[in-house]
Amino acid sequence: MTLEFKPIELFGGAITADFPNGYLDVSNIREVPNHQEIYLDASGFSSIIIEIAERVTQPPTDEEALKFHFEDIVDDNDTSKIWHTDLVHLPHFPYVKAPLTNPPSPRVLSDVPPYRRPDTPCYILLATTTPPPPSNDNAARPLTPTFTAVILALIRLPLQSTDIVVTVNIPHIPGQQEPLNANVNFEEGNFGSLVEEGMRIRDEILKSLEVKDWGLFGPAEE
Asked: Which tens digits make up the pLDDT trace of 79-93?
C-alpha cells in the first residue's frame, strides 16, 4: 500500500508534523491527556502517539533514557525485546552547544565541530512486546495480538528539560493482516510490510517534525 502524508498541527499548533492519511485524531472521540496526541489507523490496528514528557535524568545517559521510556509503556505482564537502536538526524531542530557526553557515530559528526552536538539528540528503537499466553482462567480476548512492534523515537531537549517520545505501535492480529505478516522473522531481519510501513511513518514524522512555539515547553534553562 502506498502511503501518502499530510501536515498535522499538534498541541494546538505548537508542533507540526506529516502524518499518513487515514489516521484519525482520537481526541475527537474520547478524552486524551494534554501531554499526548494519539492517532489511530481508521482501516487497521496501528497507532501513533506523540508524548511530551519531563526529561529523564536518571538513568543518566541518552541510551538508557531511551530504554527507560520504552519500558515505561510496556505492560508488566508482557515480555519484550529490543532489536535495534540508532541515532538519527532531525532537520528542523537546532544545534545545541554542549559537551558530547555520549558521542554519536562518526558518520553523524563528520562535518561538525567537536564541541557541538550535530543536532538535537534523537534516538530510535525497534522492539516487540508479547502478551502472556492465555490460561484456563484467562482466555484470549478477540483481536488479541500475538505481538506488537513498537517503533519508538526519543527527542531530547535538555534546555527545555523535556523529552518528546514518538511511538508507532503495530499490533499483529492473527487472521486479520495476512498476507502482510507472511514470513515475519525478526531474528533474520524480516520485519514484514506492516513494520516496514511503521518505520516509514516514524521516519516521515521525524523528518517533518517542527516546533512552531517553543513556549509549549515553558522557559528554557540557562
From this structure: 999 999 999 888 888
